[in-house]
């Protein structure tokens, strides 16, 4: 079992625990804001399960019908998570509107806040771990789950502040107002997550920072070649695909050209572990004078 799968399973278990705690706090107080917080945790559990399925599927090796692997399954999971977040936001908006028209005092609000606060601390710790490990393992599903949970943490803090102000002032309409603000916040988060995930599904290129690092590696390790041009990249789940044309002197043997390609490929994989690299070797008259100049 890989580390990413273990983390995904952990997300499901943590999600269920946090959901139970928040649901109890909402039931105890009758707060629509705390209810909205619990409802978002329901989405967290569903999204964590989707991420687990996607990560396990994405880990499958390439086969005859998927020769490039199954890596994009993680992006599908992230899109689904974004859609679930948006649905949760709309449900919260609907509930907040009903309570707004007839706000009522809360029961045991301080106790409810303390219980909800415990769930928020658990979420914050797990979200931090997911973001760190997700970036380390280049897992879009884990990063998406971590971002979602961190958004949940921010929402929970806002809910707690609103409920506390309602207790201190007696303005019980602050409760549905905070629920509505939570809905707006997670609606924005969900739309951003969908947009970023769709970029991966549409073969979006790597970041400019990574692209510059790749260009430097090619320039520094391609001694013997003339230039590299038409460098293209895309990322699919944990894997980065890149291809480019490498211009070599016309009189160079196939063996020597292949040695240069092997040296560049090894250096690129050290920079981006697991990268899939395709190099097209061309003779000197194909030089474009506009690509990566190889350093001797």
Automatic annotation (TrEMBL):
Q: Which InterPro entries match?
A: Cation_efflux, Cation_efflux_CTD, Cation_efflux_CTD_sf, Cation_efflux_TM, Cation_efflux_TMD_sf, CDF_Transporter
Q: Where do transmembrane segments lie in this chain?
A: 7-29, 41-59, 75-93, 113-132, 153-174
Q: Which residues form the Cation efflux protein transmembrane domain?
A: 11-202
Which GO molecular-function terms appear in the entry?
cadmium ion transmembrane transporter activity; ferrous iron transmembrane transporter activity; zinc efflux antiporter activity
An annotated GO BP: intracellular zinc ion homeostasis
**Name of one Pfam family that matches:** Cation_efflux
Q: Where in the cell is it found?
A: Cell membrane
Q: What is the membrane topology listed in the Swiss-Prot or TrEMBL record?
A: Multi-pass membrane protein
Residue intervals of the Cation efflux protein cytoplasmic domain: 207-284
Looking at the UniProt record for this protein, which Gene Ontology cellular component terms does it annotate, in alphabetical order? plasma membrane
What protein family does this chain belong to? Belongs to the cation diffusion facilitator (CDF) transporter (TC 2.A.4) family.
Q: What is this protein called?
A: Protein p34
Origin species, per record, is Palleronia caenipelagi
């Amino acid at each position: 079992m890989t580390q990413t799968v273990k983390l995904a399973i952990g997300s499901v278990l943590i999600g269920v625990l946090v959901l139970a705690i928040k649901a109890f706090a909402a039931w105890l107080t009758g707060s629509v804001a705390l209810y909205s917080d619990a409802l978002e945790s329901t989405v967290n559990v569903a999204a964590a399960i989707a991420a687990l399925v996607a990560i396990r599927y994405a880990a499958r090796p390439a086969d005859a019908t998927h020769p490039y692997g199954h890596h994009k399954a993680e992006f599908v999971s992230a899109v689904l998570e974004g859609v679930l977040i948006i649905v949760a936001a709309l449900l919260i908006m609907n509930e907040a509107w009903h309570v707004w028209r007839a706000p009522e005092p809360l029961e045991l609000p301080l106790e409810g806040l303390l219980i909800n606060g415990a769930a928020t601390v658990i979420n914050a710790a797990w979200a931090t771990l997911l973001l760190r490990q997700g970036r380390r393992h280049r897992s879009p599903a884990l990063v998406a789950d971590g971002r979602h949970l961190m958004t949940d943490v921010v929402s929970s803090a806002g809910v707690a502040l609103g409920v506390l102000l309602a207790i201190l002032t007696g303005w019980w309409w602050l409760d549905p107002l905070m629920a509505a603000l939570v809905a707006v916040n997670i609606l924005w988060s969900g739309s951003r997550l969908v947009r970023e995930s769709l970029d991966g599904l549409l073969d979006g290129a790597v970041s400019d920072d990574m692209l510059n690092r790749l260009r430097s590696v090619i320039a520094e390790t391609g001694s013997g070649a003339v230039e590299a041009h038409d460098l293209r990249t895309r990322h699919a789940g944990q894997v980065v695909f890149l291809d480019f044309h490498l211009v070599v002197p016309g009189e160079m043997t196939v063996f020597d050209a292949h040695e240069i390609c092997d040296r560049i490929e090894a250096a690129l994989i050290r920079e981006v572990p697991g990268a899939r690299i395709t190099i097209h070797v061309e003779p000197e008259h194909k030089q474009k004078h506009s690509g990566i100049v190889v350093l001797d």
